[in-house]
Amino acid sequence: MLEVSATFFKLRAVGQRGGSVTAWGGGLWGLLHSLQTQGPQTVPQLARARPVARQHIQKLADEMAAEGLVEFVENPAHKRSRLLRPTPEGEAVYLEITDELLTLCRDFSTGQDLDDLQTSLSTIRDLKESLAALLDDENA
Fold it and tell me: What is the annotated signal peptide range for this record (predicted)?
């Protein structure tokens, strides 16, 4: 866990230096990524998927809406919990940051063994799924 945490903070610092991690942290890209790949969602849905406090996602969503990156739209399934979706400007920012992140990944993975990277990816995904199951069990 310490190695994963240390690696995360170093990745974040490199991203901040290159501009792909913004003042919002990785949250801006992460939220846009969720909306781009999974479609419009409510703030509670986005919070449960992370897992973080709903208030954290609400604050981020409100800030992003004020910047014109996302918008709240009516939710046919729920009158009070509106859906959040990216605006065209938000989609453009998502694509720009994604391109920057891909370049960053290519740069720091140069010289790395592809099989080792695939093994690391598999291990991290397995750990993420195990932790998600543990959290699901605690919330049941």
Answer: none
